[in-house]
Write a structure and sequence with these properties.
This protein is an alpha+beta fold. It contains four helices and twelve strands; from the N terminus they run H-E-H-E-E-E-E-E-E-E-E-E-E-H-E-H. Strands 8-7-6-2-1-10 form a six-stranded antiparallel β-sheet, with no helix packed on it. Strands 3, 4, 5, 9, 11 and 12 form a six-stranded antiparallel β-sheet that branches.
């Protein structure tokens, strides 16, 4: 009987090792959709934040000095900055960020939280036309994505159009704005984040 039990335990041990080894190793620096605890989910529900909220966890290294959020609108096949530039000082290796919006072109709140930093910024604009009845498609970053300093990571792409059909694209199409231009959508917005090894002063000097 003891031999049978020992054999079973050995099989369980091997299966556990296999399960661990099958899990892909995360890169040294990355951003991924946050896995919220039950308590965090309850808080989100209390605040009226839906299940599709843009909440992300990220990991950096000790060389990070700043973070920058940018918001764009598509104009003549190119991204035009409508909010952002500059940046804010940031030096923690781990953190969480959240985006709160309904229509990116009208209002967007960006929050950042880490061991030594916590805060949020918000911008609002007056829409150029009534968009209440427009169809919309919103794409968000869902997959774990490796981070590199100075590289913009698209988090959200939102399309608003009066057309009968609207196609949703993966956020990686941020780097192919011409694909949106082909569809002749009235409004296309994008939100990105960029972590930098440059200070805010250095970034301001580059603008």
């Amino acid at each position: 009987m003891r031999k049978v039990m020992a054999g079973m335990l050995y099989v369980v041990f091997l299966l556990s090792l296999a399960a661990c080894s099958s899990q892909p190793k995360k890169p040294d620096m990355y951003i991924e959709k946050a896995q919220l605890s039950k308590e965090e989910e309850k808080i989100c529900q209390l605040l009226g934040v839906g299940n599709e909220a843009c909440i992300y966890d990220f990991k950096l290294d000790k060389t990070v000095k700043s973070v920058q959020f940018n918001t764009y609108q598509l104009a003549n096949g190119e991204w035009e900055l409508i909010s952002g530039a500059g940046g804010q000082q940031f030096s923690d290796e781990f953190g969480r960020l959240a985006l709160e919006f309904e229509t990116v072109g009208e209002s967007l709140r960006m929050s950042l939280q880490s061991e030594n930093s916590s805060g949020s910024t918000k911008y609002t604009t007056e829409p150029e036309e009534h968009i209440e009845n427009m169809k919309r498609a919103t794409s968000m970053l869902n997959n774990l994505t490796e981070l590199s300093y100075e590289q913009e990571i698209p988090l959200v792409i939102q399309i608003l159009t009066a057309k009968d059909t609207v196609y949703s694209y993966d956020v990686d199409y941020f780097f192919k704005p011409e694909e949106y231009e082909k569809q002749e959508y009235e409004h296309v917005y994008a939100v990105t984040v960029r972590f930098s090894q440059k200070s805010v002063g250095e970034l301001d000097h580059m603008e």
